[in-house]
Amino acid sequence: MQHDIELEELGKRIVEGSQFLEAAEEQLALRIVGQREVILRVFIAMLVNGHILLEGVPGLAKTLIISAVASVMNLKFQRIQFTPDMLPADLIGTMIYNPKDLEFHPRKGPIFANVILADEINRSPAKVQSALLEAMQERQVTIGNESFMLQEPFIVLATQNPIEHEGTYLLPEAQVDRFMMKVIVDYPSYEEELEIMVRSATTASREPLAAVVNVDDIFKARTLIDKIYVDPRVLHYIVDLVVATRNPGLYGMTELGAMIEYGASPRASIFLLLAAKAHAFLQHRPYVTPEDVKAVAYDVLRHRIRAGYEAESDNVKPDDMIRQILQNVQVP
Q1: Closest by alpha carbon to 209, among 72, 34, 64, 10?
Q2: CA gap 275, 41 in Å, rounded
Q3: CATH 3.40.50.10860 matches 228-328
Q4: Is the per-residue pLDDT at 198 higher than 80?
Q5: Within a 10 A sphere around the Cβ of 229, how many other Cβ atoms?
Q6: Whether the Cβ atoms of residue 3 and residue 230 lie closer than 8 Å to each other
Q7: How crowded is residue 33: how many other Cβ atoms within 10 Å of its Cβ?
Q8: What is the model's pTM?
């Protein structure tokens, strides 16, 4: 009984504490047509301190979405174009000699922002990718002999082009695993594209968006998300899904086992739980359901499953494997 009362009280606080996201979504609708699922995934990552790998062909408004989210949330935004000749110092900064005092002083790079768009991350060499991923993991950078903490919130949204691989440096699997989610940005519908075209022909589409969120709103939301209740059966369900990517045979999917070279790491279980709690928060619920887990499963798992030769020869994609896992693992 006491537990039910606490959940009811938490639910009221969540409804109140999530209103800023609805205001942000209304403001974003003035600039962004469609792509609601992508926007919600950005919200989820922001709420639980995660990072996103965005994959989609050029021209799908990935940069516009990210810059608009940063604008309405009143956060500092930096777009960094990754190129083959880029150096780590171009990202994190370097030491600059000052002849006036005959000393070196740190000059901070563009990584010192709240929302980072790492555009075409796979175009930069391994050292630059490593510098970015270290900042993502440690949330600090070292310039010379000094270490600097990155200001919270800090979220990296990295993009990569799925159709052009010439002159690119593919991210190693261990580095890709550090991204909380891999989100596929798809083409708009016919009606959405028509609206995009009409809107782009007006000056109103270039007017600045109102900043309707402050940083305290995000931090308060994170505190509420920490308190969201997760039933032990849902916790077991999350682990079952992740284990099924490694040993599908344990769940009656023997054929799938031959298609997966290796499955998701324990980091997937952590991110599935965090993303499911954030999804419940967006639904104004003080508890997580299996539907919350399913809603984020594709985004959390798709870049953590390595398809084997048999899957590639049969054109079976990671999303197909996740779909089969969700169908066969028993839901509590």
Answers
A1: 72
A2: 9
A3: no
A4: yes
A5: 15
A6: no
A7: 21
A8: 0.87
Calpha distance 40→264 (Å, rounded): 23
The vertex-250 CA angle with 306 and 310, nearest 5°, equals 35
Residues 6+ apart with CB under 8 A from 60: 35, 185, 186, 187, 188
Dihedral sign (CA 166, 177, 120, 296): positive
Dihedral angle, C-alpha 297, 181, 42, 54, nearest 10 °: -120
| 258 or 167, greater pLDDT | 258
Q: How is the chain split into domains, by residue range?
A: 18-200, 228-328
pLDDT of residue 297: 94
In angstroms, the CA 42 to CA 233 distance is 27
Higher-pLDDT residue of 70 and 56 is: 70
CATH superfamily, domain 18-200, is P-loop containing nucleotide triphosphate hydrolases (3.40.50.300)
- Chain position carrying tokens 């499911």: 276
How far is it, in rounded angstroms, from Cα 2 to Cα 214?
34
